[in-house]
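Design job #97: recover the sequence.
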């Protein structure tokens, strides 16, 4: 094998890439599959994988191509793409460069419609709290639609037929095509800056979803939502539903129906006014009759027939009332005076000076009573002491000795209580009342 038959990896990759690039089928091919690992780069490029049950392929859709998408790709979405398959030399992998993408199974515009509807609904754009009421009898109505379509003729004809007094301001716009959304937004903003317009009818006649698509654009939805003037949407026929219908304050099935919603029918108003006029006349007549009866009764009353007597009665009644009032005032004053006197007594009794004086008097009484109790107690204790002293003296041995008795002690001072305590020859000390006698035992005799 020669060296010319050996390829480097780079040479092999370039060879394969040229082979892919020169293949007519791979340079412009449609494929379908499911999106996975979708990622949108900060520069706008989209990177993802297209797979089916058995294979997968890397895909790139640059910002220049994906900016026209009506929907946002996401993982799990089935798509059909057109592009060119080639090799990315850095990794040696083949991938498809996507130029065009559309959902597989549902239409591109339908998917974009559902995505924008979900987004605006989540943001609260469809909530009833943002719906503005329509004026019952508007003086001026703005119409935003094509000046040449059948819709504008239907709206103007209906308005003039139902309520010819209303002023009509037509704001012509493009209602289909790429410039239509901006044209509609500008007209709504202009109407809001124009004084006098009380209701806006925004719409057009029927058409395909592509022809009605301007009313599904987000900028139109935002303009309707932020309009200070209530808006009636009237896009297409009854079966055509657009994003504008969800956001508008009222949705009309057709342009003619929008005109009917915007103004009342003059004949209906005339009938209502006539009926109310009849009811008003009837009410006024009943009221007059009732007041007339009251007047008649008043004329027949005692006051009108005998006014002088009535005045006299009232004079007398007034005197009685004055007397009663004076008595009541006198009683009330006396009652209040008594209450004041009682209060003064209470204050005097509870005055600190009075309380101190009473306490001092009570203290002196308690002191005298204490002194008396102490004197009595002293006498009682002195009597008890003398009584005990007399009993003590009666029991004293010295007292007994005065009556001729004596006490005998041994030499060691022990009291001799029995003849057994001494022996013959022991020295004995006999104590008498006025002194002592020293003796010696010569004999002992027992009883």
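Job complete. Output follows.
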């Amino acid at each position: 094998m020669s060296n010319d038959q050996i390829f480097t990896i780079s040479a092999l990759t370039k060879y394969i890439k040229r082979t892919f690039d020169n293949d007519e089928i791979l340079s412009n091919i449609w494929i379908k599959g499911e999106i996975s690992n979708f990622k949108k780069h900060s520069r706008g490029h989209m990177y993802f994988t297209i797979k089916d049950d058995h294979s997968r392929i890397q895909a790139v859709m640059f910002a220049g191509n994906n900016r026209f998408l009506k929907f946002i790709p996401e993982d799990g979405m089935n798509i059909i793409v057109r592009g060119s398959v080639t090799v990315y030399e850095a990794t040696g992998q083949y991938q498809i460069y996507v130029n065009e993408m559309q959902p597989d199974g549902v239409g591109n515009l339908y998917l974009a419609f559902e995505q924008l509807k979900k987004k605006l609904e989540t943001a609260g754009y469809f909530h009833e709290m943002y719906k503005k009421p329509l004026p019952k009898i508007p003086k001026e109505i703005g119409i935003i639609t094509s000046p040449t379509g059948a819709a504008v003729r239907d709206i103007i004809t209906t308005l003039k037929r139902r309520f010819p007094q209303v002023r009509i301001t037509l704001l012509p716009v493009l209602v289909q095509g790429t410039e239509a959304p901006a044209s509609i937004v500008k007209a709504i903003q202009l109407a809001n800056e124009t004084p006098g317009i009380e209701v806006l009818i925004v719409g057009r006649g029927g058409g395909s979803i592509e022809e009605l698509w301007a009313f599904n654009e987000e900028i139109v939805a935002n303009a309707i939502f932020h309009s200070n003037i209530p808006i009636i949407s009237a896009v297409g026929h009854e079966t055509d539903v657009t994003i504008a219908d969800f956001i508008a304050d009222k949705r009309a099935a057709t342009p003619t129906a929008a005109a009917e919603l915007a103004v009342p029918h003059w004949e209906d108003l005339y009938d209502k006014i006539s009926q109310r006029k009849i009811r008003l006349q009837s009410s006024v007549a009943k009221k007059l009759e009732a007041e007339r009866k009251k007047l008649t009764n008043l004329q027949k009353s005692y006051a009108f027939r005998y006014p002088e007597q009535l005045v006299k009665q009232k004079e007398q009644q007034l005197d009685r009332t004055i007397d009663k009032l004076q008595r009541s005032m006198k009683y009330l004053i006396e009652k209040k005076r008594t209450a004041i006197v009682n209060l003064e007594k209470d204050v005097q009794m509870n005055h600190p000076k009075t309380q101190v004086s009473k306490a001092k008097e009570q203290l002196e009484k308690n002191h005298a009573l204490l002194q008396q109790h102490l004197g009595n107690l002293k006498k009682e204790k002195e009597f008890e002491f003398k009584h005990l002293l007399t009993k003590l003296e009666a029991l004293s041995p010295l007292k007994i000795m005065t009556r001729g008795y004596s006490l005998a002690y041994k030499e060691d001072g022990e009291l001799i209580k029995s003849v057994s305590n001494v022996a013959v020859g022991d020295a004995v000390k006999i104590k008498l009342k006025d002194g002592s006698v020293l003796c010696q035992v010569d004999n002992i005799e027992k009883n």
